[in-house]
Amino acid sequence: MTIITVIGSLNKDLVTYTNKVPGAGETYQANAFQTHNGGKGLNEALATAKLLPVSADIKVRMVGRVGNDSFGQELKGCLADAGVDVSQVTEEPLPSGVAVILVEASGENRILITPGANGKLSLDEAAVAAIFPVSEEPEFVILQNEQPDPAENMKMLKKNNPAVNIAYNPSPFYEVSDPAVLGLVDVLIINEGEAADLAKSVLAGPALEKVNGKIGSSFVEGYLALASLLVNKINGDNLNTVVITLGAKGAIYANMVHGAKFYAAEKVAKVVDTTGAGDTFLGAIVGQLALDQSIDDLMAFASKASSIVIQREGAAESIPTHAEVLEAMK
Questions:
Q1: How far apart are the first and last CA of the chain?
Q2: pLDDT digits (tens, 9 = 90+) for 252-283
Q3: Of residues 149, 279, 292, 296, which has the active-site annotation?
């Protein structure tokens, strides 16, 4: 059995829908307020599980921390209801993580995160060895930056089992202090802004100037060039995959074997809320890789899945099932 494990955050999303974001000292009447289950870790685990066929011999697990409050119970229950193994989601004597989200009429969002119990998500070598026993079965681990030290986790995971495929989404982005850490990554999934910031950390002067010049003159061609460069910075022994999402334009898939290719985005009638779209795209990509789908097929599937999300309100609740995506692709 293939195992996909997500190590990351679980947050309660407090969402306000508004036509305008108030300035300093300004009060403005919003349109609506909702609460949703969220956090990049939860969204990715939920998306991965929901976007797999029911018949797939794949287990999805979540490793995380919640508070000993009602939010924590709701977050765990949401994952368990979707078939995600939550045995490694433990409670801390703290409030659960919270994300305050402002969604404008255009669908664009602004997010403030209070980590809460997520700040206690720290694994040592003994914990890694216990949670990830070495196996000959294919294994994927998804990480992002809504946790204390993803780089250290990657080091321990690779030391424990070099064959594990690490999928990394460096979001929210912060400067890479040790570029060698990218060499532990097998699947890098990143948006255009994060990719540009990452380039500043891992590319030398002339190479960075050249790729920035290309992005300035031809947006897609520039990111194709950047994807090709990043492929050589990540691990070349396993899946060696870079995906850069370009918002409404589409996405780029690259590896050493096939080079870099651009895929146009699905067109939608109206964008309602972009929250969770990137996490859904990531979950779809990793799930399709685990199913050994072709590049064209997995990119089409991920694009359709994320296009469904942006036409719905919320993050976790907006993620479609595998069956829904297939129906929409007909």
A1: 30
A2: 999 999 999 999 999 999 999 888 899 999 99
A3: 279
